[in-house]
Amino acid sequence: MTALVSVYLDTRVSKTEDIYPLKIRVTFNRERRYYGLEAKKINELLRANQVEEYLFKGAGNYSISEAVFNKTKEENLRGAYRKLRDVFNKIQVEYQAKADRLKPFSFESFAYEFD
Question: What's the CA gap between 7 and 24, in Å, rounded?
Answer without folding.
Answer: 5
